Task: inverse folding
């Protein structure tokens, strides 16, 4: 449906393309139906973009790992190779008399330690290619750059600046320049204040604003090129008439910075007077040197038998080479058992021989793979724990309870202070949580169901809720943790606690699980003293003399912490020890 498509496009990387410009780059025209068939065979989706202003556009949905397809240039390059309209290009270095270099200071290690660079010479932009160049940077920032947290790109008019360059990190007050499209010079602190209300840039300020130093790139004359990952300087901004472009990318992840630079060069070096050429930049760290971009192709030897078995076909080596050639992998026969696939610099998604097998399947056409009946037959069955959980869900639903599904992560306060408990060594804490709401893995289902109750108190009382989900504890096993399947059920009434109903529910569930009421061979209840519950209105549930759960009236202070103001009773049980009884009854 149209609603489904709109939702899907929000989640997947998409590009909107002028069809005439795409056909110009391909060197051939297609109808929408023909292009739809081509894209389906290639593994991407297309539809006409009715929401785009300024003429008819095609919208392409791109796989999240294909950063090279996020521009019309990259898309046209790969589709052109797939259709046999062009050869696989080889990106080459062109050297100037003196190689440009950038020195990286040690202070950058405090904030963004890596930088890469390249120079595109004699670029000839049109308005469409210039707009695409700018848009591609935004797409990369959002995807591989994770909204500039991992990678930020800067592009500059090389004729307005002078190398060598310095990548440094300085105190905000010590950085002063005129940012893009402004004439007034501002220091780093002022920039943070000015752009705090900018609809686009305010979302990136948090990346560096609390750091004692800001990253900055200077040229040999002290001109600021950029303050990554926020904004470039106005002095070196590129224009439609720019001929020589200096591309730099700063990052917290060097591999992603190299991938970003490679796909930009592969897509836009086609506009150089000598297409698919790039001038390298030397990056000088204190303890090492690097030359970027890394344009070398990678050779991968793959077993012919492995490729055929994985895809489900039976092709000789020469045909495999032809199919992989369509996917941009220059492939030759190594020997009677192997082929060698050459992975170009822009195909960062090819990490393993299975990725080459995937390309072979796409090129061959999955619809052309013949269905084969497996030589061995197996039968699957539901795990006993999951089967028991589903049956318990049905019983609780038939008893009038509504199921809820809560977050597996809680704040530390939720699982301690809010339920009147102290932190212990069994709680698993999350390293570097994005929000205080998700600091720890839940060790009880109580906070989640009480939050759900608080959000539904406008509904008619009484309210019956339940959840059957896993909780997590730290232990001494190989993984360092274990899951337990817990059941929790809750009743909230206006004038009564509902404790007798919860007690009755415990007996009913045990009856359904074939667990008899017996002190040593079944279950029984015993008075408890748990601070989460009201004194003398609570009890442990024991199974073979070991506690597996608790029920009672929730303490008023706990209810107040979750903004629930009506009497509430609940039960929480670890149902895993009951599997044996359930299994016997199931027979």
Result:
């Amino acid at each position: 449906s149209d609603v489904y498509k709109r939702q899907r496009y929000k989640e997947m990387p998409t590009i909107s393309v002028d069809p005439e410009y795409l056909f110009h780059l391909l060197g051939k025209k297609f109808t929408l139906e023909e292009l739809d068939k081509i894209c389906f065979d290639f593994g991407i989706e297309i539809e006409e973009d009715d929401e785009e202003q300024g003429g008819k556009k095609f919208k392409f949905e791109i796989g999240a790992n294909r950063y090279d397809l996020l521009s019309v240039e990259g898309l046209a390059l790969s589709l052109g190779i797939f259709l046999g309209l062009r050869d696989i290009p080889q990106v080459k270095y062109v050297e100037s008399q003196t190689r440009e270099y950038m020195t990286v200071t040690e202070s950058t290690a405090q904030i963004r330690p890596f930088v890469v660079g390249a120079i595109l010479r004699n670029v000839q932009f049109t308005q469409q290619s210039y707009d695409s160049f700018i848009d591609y940077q935004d797409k990369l920032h959002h995807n591989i750059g994770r909204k500039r947290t991992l990678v930020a790109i800067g592009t500059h008019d090389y004729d307005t600046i002078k190398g060598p360059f310095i990548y440094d990190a300085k105190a905000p007050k010590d950085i002063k320049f005129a940012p893009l499209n402004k004439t007034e010079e501002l220091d780093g602190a002022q920039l943070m204040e000015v752009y705090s209300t900018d609809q686009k840039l305010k979302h990136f300020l948090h990346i560096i604003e609390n750091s004692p130093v800001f990253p900055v790139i200077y040229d040999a004359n002290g001109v600021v090129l950029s303050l990554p990952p926020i904004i470039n300087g106005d002095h070196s901004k590129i224009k439609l008439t720019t001929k020589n472009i200096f591309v730099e990318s700063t990052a917290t992840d060097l591999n992603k910075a190299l991938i970003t630079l490679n796909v930009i060069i592969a897509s836009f070096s086609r506009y150089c007077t000598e297409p698919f050429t790039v001038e390298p930049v030397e990056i000088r760290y204190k303890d090492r040197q690097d030359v970027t971009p890394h344009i070398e192709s990678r050779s991968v030897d793959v077993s012919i038998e492995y490729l055929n078995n994985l895809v489900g076909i039976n092709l000789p080596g020469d045909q495999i080479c032809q199919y992989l050639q369509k996917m941009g992998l220059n492939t030759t026969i190594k020997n009677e058992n192997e082929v060698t696939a050459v992975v170009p610099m822009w195909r960062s998604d090819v990490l393993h021989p299975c990725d080459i097998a995937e390309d072979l399947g796409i090129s061959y056409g999955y619809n052309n793979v013949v269905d084969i009946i497996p030589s061995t037959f197996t039968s699957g069955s539901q795990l006993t724990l999951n089967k028991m959980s589903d049956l318990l869900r049905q019983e609780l639903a038939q008893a009038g309870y509504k199921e809820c599904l809560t977050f597996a992560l809680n704040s530390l306060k939720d699982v301690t202070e809010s339920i009147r408990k102290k932190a212990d060594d069994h709680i698993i804490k999350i390293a570097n949580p994005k929000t205080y709401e998700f600091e720890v893995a839940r060790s009880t289902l109580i906070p989640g169901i009480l939050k759900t109750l608080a959000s539904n108190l406008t509904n008619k009382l009484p309210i019956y809720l339940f959840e059957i989900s896993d909780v997590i504890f730290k232990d001494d096993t190989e993984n360092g943790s274990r899951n337990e399947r817990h059941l929790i059920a809750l009743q909230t009434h206006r004038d009564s606690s509902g404790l007798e109903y919860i007690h009755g529910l415990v007996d009913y569930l045990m009856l359904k699980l074939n667990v008899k009421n017996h002190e040593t061979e079944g279950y029984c209840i015993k008075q408890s003293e748990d601070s989460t519950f009201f004194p003398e209105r609570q009890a442990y549930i024991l199974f073979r003399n070991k506690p597996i759960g608790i029920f009672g009236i929730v303490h008023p202070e706990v209810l107040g912490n979750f903004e629930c103001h009506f009497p509430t009773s609940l039960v929480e049980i670890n149902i895993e020890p009951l599997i044996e009884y359930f299994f016997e009854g199931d027979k």
Notes: The longest helix spans residues 127-142. The chain has 16 helices and 28 strands. The longest strand covers residues 463-474. Confidence is low (pLDDT under 50) at residues 1-10.
